[in-house]
Request: fold
Amino acid sequence: MDLIKAMNERHSVRSYTEKKIEGETLEDLQAEIDRCNAESGLSVQLVTDEPEAFDSFLAHYGKFSGVRNYIAIVGKKSEELYEKGGYYGEKIVLKAQALGLNTCWVALTFSKKKAAYKHKKGEKLVCVIAVGYGQTQGVPHKNKSVDKLFKIDGSMPSWFRNGVYAAMTAPTAVNQQKFCFTLLPDGNVKAESTGGFYSKVDLGIVKYHFELGAGGHSFKFV
Reply:
C-alpha cells in the first residue's frame, strides 16, 4: 500500500484484537521509527505486548480496549518538539497503515506512570500512538468546510488544492481542524495553527499530509 492510499484509508481506531505485531511487520515498523529518529533527532520508541498504560480509568473513559502496543513520541525539550513530534509521528502512523496496522493518537487518556517508555534527562514525552490490529478499520471523521482551511489570492494551483484536501484527512485533537494554509506570492506556503489544544502536534501532522498531497511539488513552509 502506498502512502497516499494509506492516508485516505487510515482512520482512528480505539479497540484492538489480541493479534501480535511480529515478523516482517514488526521489523518494517521499527525500521521506519529508526529512520525518523535519525532524521529528526527524536527518541521515538515502540512498546509491544505491554497493556498497563491503557489499563486505567482514563483509558477506559476514552473507550480504548485491547491496546497492548503503542509508540511513544519522545524528544529533547524545545520550541519545535511538539510540531516535530506530530510530523514524524504521522509518518510512522501512515507507514503502520501501509503495513496493515491501525492506530490512534493519544494525548491524555493513558497512564504516563505505567507507560514503559524511557527518556533521558532533558527529554519529554509528547504523546503516544496506540498501534495494532483493530477490531474495525474506523470511520472517517467529519470535516470543516474546505474554504475555512486555506487562504489564496487568485486561482488555486492543483498541487495546493491537493495539499489542502490531504490535510483534511489528517487526525487532529478532538477533530478540531484548527489550521490554515496560505499560498504566498513567491509560491511558498504559510502553515499556521488557529488555536486549540495540542495545536502544535496537529500542525506537524497536517503539514506532513499537505506535503504528501502536494505530490513532490517544490515549495517551502515558511
In short: Residues 146-214 form a domain with the NADH Oxidase fold (CATH 3.40.109.30). The helical segments are 3-9, 23-40, 57-61, 81-98, 158-168, 199-214.
